[in-house]
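Methods: example folding runs. The two proteins below were folded one after another, and each record is reproduced exactly as written to the output file, sequence line first and C-alpha cell line second.
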Amino acid sequence: MAGTIVCDLTVPEIHRLIGTLFSPPITSLDALLHWSNWRRSHQASARRSHYRQRLSVPSSA
C-alpha cells in the first residue's frame, strides 16, 4: 500500500492486535494486518473528507 496515508494506531486497535496474537483467530496474520491497514486508511480518508467539508461550508453564526 505504498503512498497510502493512514491514521496512527489507536489504543483499542493495539489491544485488539495484541489480544489476537495471544489468542489466535481463525483468520491469518496477513488478514489481520490487512484489516488493520484498511481500517486506518479508511479513517484517514474519512478525516480528510470531514475536514474538507467543514472548511467548505460557510459559517452561519
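Second run, written to the same file directly after the first:
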Amino acid sequence: MPASTLNQSAVSMPVFWRWGWLALLASLLLLGQGLPAHADLKLCNTTSSRVGIAIGYKDPDGWATEGWWNVASHTCETLLKGMLIGRFYYIHAIDYDRGGEWGGDLSMCTDDKSFTIRDTGDCVKRGYKRTGFFEVDTGEERDWTVRLTDPDGEAKSQ
C-alpha cells in the first residue's frame, strides 16, 4: 500500500470516530427525552407558622403512615419522591406555632416522634395514636402539590 494511502486513511479515521461519537451522543439525548419526568408528592406551607406533616397511603404491601416532616413557613417539602403509586393520599398537619391542626375523618396511626407505621388498625393497642387525616385526590397525576393555607383558608391541592 502506498504511503499516501496510509496517511489518508489515518487522517480520515478520526473524522469517522468524531461523527460516530456525535451520532451516539445525539441518540442518547433523544432517548433521554422519552424518559418519564421526575414526579413527586410535595407539600407547600403557605402559612406564617412552622408545621409538622404526616402522610398516609396505600402501596402494594398495604396501608402505611409516615411522619414527621417539619416544614418552615412559606417553604415546600417533598414528601414522596418519584412517580405517585396511587390516586389517594392522606395528610395530617400540626401548626407548631399557633396550635391547631389540619385533619379529617380517616383515622390512621401516628407517633410523637419520627415514624413509619404499617397498617391502620388497632393504633392504640399497638402503642400509637389514632389520628384523623384528610384525603388528597391526585386524579392519578404523577406529580402533585398540596398547599396548606392559614386558618381563614383551607388546605388546597393541585
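Comment on the second run: The helical segments are 3-33.
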